[in-house]
Write a structure and sequence with these properties.
The chain has about 850 residues and is mainly α. The chain is about 70% helix and about 5% strand. Strands 1-2 form a two-stranded antiparallel ribbon. Helix 30 runs parallel beside helix 37 and helix 34 packs parallel to helix 37. The longest helix is centred in the first third of the chain and has 33 residues, at about 145-180. It is elongated.
């Protein structure tokens, strides 16, 4: 149901409540039938609660399944073939038959589509393919004297098991694609990845310990028998638990289509085609290195089963740790974009193989103390934590993209084609790697690494893996077109940023989505805002409806600091919501990243009865600088009697540079008895007369040390006049101005503010006469009339001084005070700056009127 809170407390659309299409089978024809909300194959409603329970059960079952995978197809299988003396090609074949068996998905998909339940079909095949793993537990014991026959027999078991597994795989993927709610696929698969990989590493560790406890030196294979027996039991448990996961009723095709057309249909979608090719080549590249790393480590460095299990566990642990953050990033930056990044980043860890050393290292462990291990084991136990996370992230992106791109109708066949093509491409990797291993074994490479270790077959495979990933897989992934939510590659890299910082940000994202206290949520939102974590925008938007006002307010401020288009739009929409209690906070937040798009919404809030909302909106309009706000702000100054609103609107007009506002502000400046408001209005007036921000600094310094700014300004003015006298000789006007500065300083010290105002006006007229080449005598009105065409700010400054000396009493504005005089001093400072630039000639008349 769109907008309904559902799966894992994320506010995304659940499939529950949407209209669904079901089918009726009459004489082999598929008919389109409209149905109400999503239901299971049993006709029971599939509610959000049942979906959540089903997905949690799926994760538990997956943990058993990964335990089976670790013990059946992980290290033990490769090490068994190595112990049986198999060559590189046969070892590669153990992976190749698994990949080739993916072709079985296609006919099985057609069959499963005609069945009432994909789940029961999958379970019936899957349980058999897990049971057959009791055979590898028995074969080494029964055929211990016939190692070659044992190897071929186990390879046959792998083939049978793989065919049965793949015959059921498409049904499982189709079943899960229908069950996982849209919008959170990346996070679900990431979370699932973390838990199942935890089970994988535990099973891998147990397998390593068992194999080391029962060595094969005496020609016995007891350890392998125990491991494969446990694997079979774990695999069966996976199937039994999975039966408790609900199965949505599948959407069937609306009409019968020929088999070949059905097979080619998903590949006609160019995005599905490029994804399949990219992933096929990726698994081909992985197959080049895959199982052969452990053979290289065992042969060249004497690594034990426990050592090999250790680095495999390290990679699995990386997948556990990286599951949630990588799944989240796949949702936030787009699975296609994130997969491209990972296809470049993950293979770079293959270069670590060129730094292996033949010298063992001493590793200190808390309980065991100092332990001597081969240098590659120590190195990869560390690097695989990161590499394993990145490699697992590619799988998360693939599952997410495949679910997105596969057609809704006939999804089972589409998924079967996807994995079958991947299997065919990937099957070549292990075989080619096996040939390379055998060839290099017969023709050893004479090169040495800087560390002293020899260049081996595995270094050739590692470079092949990197080349395939960088030159083929990543470009093919970029051929998949961007969809809604997919960020451009450069923007995605910028949003992810520093990997360590990104992990910290993801932790805070986890906190705001957790069920912790409101203080923790509010703190997490605040830190996300401080770091401008743009990938968290969607999560923060959800928290605008949080029950806690602290969380809501911190969320608003965070969105304002992030300032992305999505964040600004969310704030604008919430500001326009009548029932929102966040209007003042939103208006303040929009000031963090001023955007013209918010002007209309803020203008509406100027008439809001709440003074906080009105004042914050006015200040933000000033920060945005859009002239559309000027009329409304002028009206606000004329009509309001609220000091806070008056201060904010005056500041806004000053920032907008609206000179006409000075005529509206000065009456309020003179009439107010509020000292704080008076200073605020004085700053607004001075900003209009000069450069915004200058008078504020002058005023604060003068309030801190009375007379300090006056002394500095007059000192600069005298220095300038002395330089002028030295340059042009004695001048009566300049001498008079110098005397005025002395008289002005004396009057200021005596706090004779009226005398100061008179002297400031005369001084301003004299400076203007020099700076603008005006010959108008002491007549202020004439000077103003001359200046208004050339420099409105200077003209307005002299107008202010003229009003200070003549109009104050007429307008009943009360006595002149120190603040009025300080504004006058600032007018002189602005004129002085003009004078230092040299005389300014009046504009040349063109004969045209304007």
């Amino acid at each position: 149901m769109k907008g309904r809170k559902g799966f894992y407390s994320f506010s995304y659309g659940s499939k529950v409540g949407e209209e669904r299409l079901t089918y009726a089978d009459y004489s082999g024809e598929y008919l389109l039938v409209s149905s109400p909300p999503l239901v299971t194959v049993d006709g029971l409603p599939l509610t959000d609660r049942r979906i959540r329970q089903g997905l949690r059960t799926n994760i538990v079952a997956g943990a058993f399944g990964m335990g089976w995978l670790a013990m059946a197809l992980g290290i033990p299988l490769t090490m068994l073939f190595e112990a049986l003396g198999a060559g590189g090609v046969m070892i590669g074949m153990t992976v190749t038959v698994q990949q080739l068996s993916m072709v079985a998905q296609v006919p099985a998909a057609f069959l499963s589509e005609r069945l009432a339940s994909r789940k029961l079909y999958w379970a019936s095949l899957a349980v058999v393919h897990r049971v057959v793993w009791f055979l590898p537990a028995l074969l080494p014991l029964l055929l211990s004297e016939h190692r070659r026959a044992t190897a071929w027999s186990v390879l046959g078991v792998v083939l049978i098991s793989s065919v049965l597994a793949q015959a059921s795989a498409a049904s499982w993927f189709s079943w899960m694609a229908d069950l996982v709610p849209e919008g959170v696929g990346g996070r679900f698969w990431g979370k699932r990845q973390s838990w199942v990989m935890l089970a994988y590493l535990i099973a891998m560790g147990v397998a390593g310990v068992i194999l080391d406890a029962f060595p094969t030196d005496a020609g016995k294979y007891t350890g392998f028998s125990i491991v494969f027996s446990i694997a079979a039991l774990l695999g069966i448990a996976d199937i039994l638990v999975h039966l408790r996961v609900p199965e949505p009723r599948a959407r069937r095709r609306t009409h019968q289509v020929k088999v070949m057309a059905r097979l080619l249909e998903p590949l006609q979608d160019r995005d599905f085609r490029w994804l399949t090719c990219s992933m096929g080549m990726w698994y081909f590249g992985v197959g080049l290195v895959g199982s052969f790393a452990m053979i290289y480590l065992k042969r060249d460095f004497g690594a034990s089963y426990t050592h090999i299990a250790l680095i495999t566990i390290s990679a699995s642990l990386g997948g556990v740790i990286g599951g949630f953050p990588l799944g989240y990033l796949a949702d936030r930056v787009g699975a296609r974009t994130f997969a491209t990044i990972l296809l470049v980043a993950a293979p770079a860890f293959a270069f670590a193989w060129f730094f292996v050393s033949p010298h063992p290292v001493h590793v200190y462990l808390p309980i065991l103390g100092a332990v001597v291990v081969p240098q590659p084991i120590a190195m990869f136990a560390c690097t695989n934590l990161v590499a394993g996370a990145l490699y697992s992230g590619i799988g998360i992106c693939q599952l997410h993209l495949a679910s997105q791109l596969a057609p809704k109708e006939g999804r089972t066949v589409a998924m079967a084609m996807h994995w079958s093509i991947i299997g065919l491409l990937a099957a070549l990797g292990p075989v080619i790697a096996g040939f390379i291993m055998d060839w290099v074994g017969e023709h050893p490479l004479a090169w040495k690494l800087p560390s002293g270790a020899g260049v081996s077959f595995y270094h050739v495979l590692a470079m092949g893996h990197v080349s395939v990933s960088w030159l083929i897989c990543a470009p093919l992934m970029l051929m998949v077109r961007s969809r809604g939510g997919d960020l451009p590659l450069g923007l995605a890299l910028a949003r992810i940023g520093n990997p360590l910082r990104a992990m910290s940000n993801l932790y805070h994202i986890y906190q705001i989505n957790s069920h912790g206290s409101s203080d923790k949520r509010a703190g997490a939102a605040r830190r996300l805002g401080e770091r401008k974590t743009s990938i968290a925008v969607s999560d923060l938007i959800e928290k605008l409806d949080d029950p806690s006002p602290d969380v809501r307010e911190e969320t608003v401020l965070a969105l304002g600091k992030i300032g992305s288009p999505e964040a600004i739009q969310a704030l604008i929409e919430r500001l326009q919501t009548p029932e929102s209690d966040l209007a003042p906070q939103i208006a303040r937040a929009l000031r963090e990243n001023p955007a013209p798009a918010s002007v209309d919404a803020l203008l509406e809030k100027l008439s809001d009865g709440d003074r906080e909302t009105c004042s914050e909106s006015a200040r933000t309009l000033g920060a945005i600088g859009d002239p559309r706000a000027i009329p409304s702000l002028l009206d606000l100054i004329r009509t309001t009697d609220d000091s806070k609103v008056l201060s904010a609107s005056s500041e806004a007009l000053a920032r907008l540079g609206e000179l006409a506002a000075i005529y509206e502000i000065i009456p309020h400046l003179r009439n107010t008895r509020n000292p704080v408001l008076k200073r605020s209005l004085a700053v607004a007036v001075a900003d209009l007369l000069g450069t915004p921000g200058e008078f504020y600094r002058l005023l604060t310094r003068e309030l801190q040390a009375n007379g300090s700014e006056l002394e500095r300004l007059l000192k600069d003015l005298r220095r300038m006049l002395h330089k002028r006298l030295n340059r042009v000789g004695s001048d009566e006007e300049d001498d008079a101005l110098l005397r005025m500065t002395l008289a002005l300083e004396s009057a200021y010290d005596r706090q004779e503010w009226r005398s100061c105002a008179d002297l400031l006006l005369k001084l301003a007229i004299g400076i203007a006469a020099i700076g603008y080449s005006i010959d108008s005598g002491p007549d202020a009105k004439a000077v103003i009339a001359d200046l208004v065409w050339r420099d409105q700010h200077s003209a307005l400054g002299i107008w202010y001084l003229d009003a200070l000396t003549e109009n104050w009493a007429e307008e009943n504005w009360g006595p002149i005070d120190q603040l009025d005089v300080l504004i006058g001093f600032y007018v002189i400072a602005c004129l002085q700056t003009r004078l230092q630039r040299g005389p300014i000639e009046p504009p040349v008349a063109t004969g045209e009127s304007s």
